[in-house]
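Q: What would this complex look like in 3D?
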Amino acid sequence: MSAPTLDSGATAAGDPVTAQVHALASAAKTASRRLIGLSTAAKNDVLTAAAAAIEAAQEEILAANATDIARAEADGIEASLLDRLRLTPERVTGIANGLRQVAGLPDPIGEVVAGKTLPNGMTLRQVRVPLGVVGIVYEARPNVTVDAFGIAFKSGNAVLLRGSSSAADSNAALVAVLREVLAAHDIDPNAVALLPAHDRSSVTALIQARGLVDVVIPRGGAGLINAVVANATVPTIETGTGNCHVYVHSAADLDMAEKVVINAKTRRPSVCNTAETVLIDADIADVALPRIVAALQAEGVTIHGDEDGMEPADEQDWSEEYLSLDIAVRRVDDLDDAIEHIGRYGTGHTEAIITSDLAAANEFTKRVDAAAVIVNASTAFTDGEQFGFGAEIGISTQKLHARGPMGLPELTSTKWVVWGDGQIRPV
Amino acid sequence: MSAPTLDSGATAAGDPVTAQVHALASAAKTASRRLIGLSTAAKNDVLTAAAAAIEAAQEEILAANATDIARAEADGIEASLLDRLRLTPERVTGIANGLRQVAGLPDPIGEVVAGKTLPNGMTLRQVRVPLGVVGIVYEARPNVTVDAFGIAFKSGNAVLLRGSSSAADSNAALVAVLREVLAAHDIDPNAVALLPAHDRSSVTALIQARGLVDVVIPRGGAGLINAVVANATVPTIETGTGNCHVYVHSAADLDMAEKVVINAKTRRPSVCNTAETVLIDADIADVALPRIVAALQAEGVTIHGDEDGMEPADEQDWSEEYLSLDIAVRRVDDLDDAIEHIGRYGTGHTEAIITSDLAAANEFTKRVDAAAVIVNASTAFTDGEQFGFGAEIGISTQKLHARGPMGLPELTSTKWVVWGDGQIRPV
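A: Here is my prediction, written as C-alpha cells for the whole assembly.
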C-alpha cells in the first residue's frame, strides 16, 4: 500500500520550518520538565487566571478572529466551516469556562496506580506521570486551542498546537494570552506553543520529532489522520473517524428504534458519533424498514441503499462516513450477519443494537470490536462529557493506550518507582 | 531526519511475500474473533496441553534446531549468538514450563476496569478485551516463539511471529506443535503463525498491515526497533533499548554503591537492564571513583571515561548501549548535573541512584523520566518476572499504553459497554 504523503517539500532539519518546529519542541521539552513539579493548586491557579485573562482579552481575540473570518470569506470557504471558525462574545466566555471546568477536575498526576513489596524487601510503586510534550494537530475551531492547553496543562504536559491556517490569527491571539498568564505565574511560557500553519511541513516536522515530542494526537478527518499515521515516527493516538452503525434487531422495540436512529443521525450530523448506517434484521424488515426510512426522510435525511426509493448504494456507501444528513440502510439476515457487516465496514468507534432480547444484547456487546458498544441507546453518547470525564481531548479509535473518549488520565503515562536498601539480583 | 529503511525491495500488495503476510494476518484476524469467547479454563487447557506436546516433540524440535545450528556454524556466526540459538533437552523443558506458568496466571480478559451509572440511567462498564492480532518481531532465541504465543493466547490474542532467519527451522517445528494443539482443541490454528524470515520484506508487510494487525512489538536491538518505528503504520510498542545509569550520590554508602554497580554491570551484560554508565558525584569522587573503577576492573570490565587510566571516552560513549563488559564512568557536579546527563543520554529504561539522603532520593525519582527509577538497588531488577508479573513480553521504553515490563494486561485493550433503555441525547 502506498502511504498518503503530507507534503512534497523538504523535511530535513535544515529546512527553516523544521528547524523552527524543533526549536519550539525543544523549548517545550525543557518547560515540561518543570511542569511535573507543579502542585495541583498552582496548576488550578493558572487555569482560572487564564480563564479570566481570556475574558479580559475578548476584544483583541474577536478582532483577530475577524481577520480570520474576512480571509476565509474572501477565500470562499463554506458556511459550515465559517461557523466553526467564528468566535462571538458568548463563545469566548464558553472557552474561558472550559478552563474553569478543567481546574475543577481531579489532578491525575501522582496517583499511585499499583504498588507492592517484593519478597526481597524492595517496594514498587507505579506512579502516574505526565507524557511530557504532546503535539495536537487539528482543524478549524479555535476553541480547541484553549481546550487542548487546559487538558494538557492540568495533566502536567507541555503542548505544541498545530491548528488550521484558517484560524491562524485567532489561535495566535489565544496562545499569546495563555503564554502571558504562564509567564506571570513564573512558569516557562514554552509550555504552550503554536506551530506555523501555512503549509504541512510543520506537521511532518512535528510527527517526526522523536526524542522531543512524546505523543501526537491528530484530530480531524480521515485524510489528516491517515497521513499522520503513515508518516509519524513519534507515537500517535488516532482519533475520531466514526462509521457508526445502529442494528435494529428482530426483537427491537420499534418505537425505541425509530427514536434512537433519528437522534443518532440528526442530532449533530457532522460529529464522529453520528450514525452512518442502519442495519435492519430481515425478520422485521417488512415493517421496520419502511417505518424507519419514512421517519428519517421526514427529518430531511437522504437514504442510500438497495431497496426501492433509495439512492442506489455501492460498496463505498457501506464504508462512508457521511457526516451529513445522509444514511445508508441495509437489510441483514440475522445477528451474525449484522456483526459481520460491522466487522467489515466499521471503524471501531461506536456500534449500537436495539433489542429486547438479552442473549442478543450480550452476544453483540461481546463480539463487536469497537471503542463503545451500546445497547438500546443513541450512538451520540460516546463523548467525554457524556461519559462524565469533564473534559475531552478526542475519541481514540485505536486499541493502544486509550480507547474511546480521552480525558485527563489518558494524557498521562506511568513510571515505576523502586526503593531498596542495597538489593542486588542473584545470577 | 532520514528514516532507516527496512528493505529496498517491493512492498506492494502484489509482492508474493506481502501477499503471504496479508493472508496470514487475515486468517489470524478471523481466528482472533473466536479467541475472545474462550473461557479461562479452555485457554489453560490449551496451554498445558501445548506444554506436554512440546515435551513430547522434543526429538523433532532438537533435530530442527540442529539444522539451524549447523547452518549458523557454516555461516560463521559468533559463539554468543550460537548459544542463544541452541536448544537442549533442559531448554525444551524450560519452554514447556513457561507455558504452564502462564496457564497459572490470572486471566486479564473480562475484567471490569471502571464502571458507572449515568444520571440518565445508562450504565457504563469499561471491560478489558484482547488487542486482537499482535505481531512480534524478534531476533535469535527460539524460546521467544513459544513464550510470545503463551502470553498472547492467554490474553485472547492471535499472534504473528516474525523470528530470526537463523532460527527458522526451530521456530517452524515449535509453531507446528502449537498449531496441532490448537486444532486438537477445536480452535482455529491460525491463532498462531510464523511469517517468512528470509528477508525483511515480511517485516515491512507486517508493520504496514493496518486493519489486519492491531499492534506490533519489536524486540531486539536499537537498529531493528528504529527501523520498525520509522516504517510502521500499525501502532507499535517500542521495547528494550537500555542505556541505564547508576548515579553514586555524594551521600552514598560506598559498600552498597560498589556492590550495586558490579551487579548492574556484570550479572548479565548482554541484557537491556545492564548498567552502561556510572555517574559519580564530584564531592566523593576522589575516594569513590578509584574504588569503583578498581572493583569493575577486577571483574574484567573495561572503563571508558575522561580520567587517567581509562579508555578515552568521546560523545558516543555516553550514548552507547555496550551490552558487554564495558562501562562509561563520569564525574558529575551534583544531583542536577546527574539528572541533566541522564536526561540527555538516557533511553528512558532504568535509572538508579545510590544515596542515604532522602531529599536526593525523592528529587531523583521525581525528576528522572524513565520507565523505572530505582533507589539503592540494582538496575537488573527491571524485569517482568522480578516485578512479579509471572511472564513478560518485553520492556516498553515508550510512554504510550505500557511503560516498563509488559505482562498479560499490557497485551489487552478495553471497550466501553453501555446499556440503556432507549436513551437519546438532547441537542
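A: To summarize the key features: Residues 1-11 of chain A have pLDDT under 50 and may be disordered. Chain A touches chain B through 75 residues (CB under 8 Å).
Q: Very helpful, thank you.
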